[in-house]
Amino acid sequence: MKYAKLIDEARTAREMAYVPYSKFKVGAALETKDGRIFRGCNVENASYGLCNCAERTAFFSAIAEGYKPGDFTALAVIGQTDGPIAPCGACRQVILELGGNALPVVLTNLKGDVFETTAAQQLPNAFGGADLN
Ligand SMILES: O=c1ccn([C@H]2C[C@H](O)[C@@H](CO)O2)c(=O)[nH]1
Ligand SMILES: [Zn+2]
């Protein structure tokens, strides 16, 4: 399968999750055009609203290393869900802005269910930078 390696990286990232409150581990792996992979896991906090999802951790890590919107080829996400995991709304907004409309988003779970979608499909009728005038 085309995304097998990226999904495996997301699975590895999931093991790093810091989830003392929800106990729900999520992993993400973001591939760059120059062949790097940035892993992300969810990182929780006793102040629950500060919890950061795996998807945003992966993107923010890549941005902090100098990567820009347009530099990414695919994002994989994995969690222990019945079907492929569904990113939260906040992550969909970030994935769209930093990944771009066409970014392949590969949603999966520990059982191996896979749903291939795109950033834009995951957030129809989105608010974006062009709306700021
Ligand atoms: O796609 C998702 C969905 C949830 N979570 C995290 C947020 C929180 O730490 C925990 C429970 O919502 O899972 C993610 O990281 N990614
Ligand atoms: Zn999220």
From TrEMBL:
Q: Which PROSITE patterns match?
A: CYT_DCMP_DEAMINASES_2
Key words, A-Z: Hydrolase, Metal-binding, Zinc
One GO molecular function term?
A: cytidine deaminase activity
The protein's superkingdom reads: Bacteria
Residues that, per the record, bind substrate: N42, V43, E44, N45, A46, S47, Y48
Single biological process term from Gene Ontology: pyrimidine-containing compound metabolic process
Q: Which reaction does it catalyse?
A: 2'-deoxycytidine + H2O + H(+) = 2'-deoxyuridine + NH4(+); cytidine + H2O + H(+) = uridine + NH4(+)
UniProt protein name: Cytidine deaminase
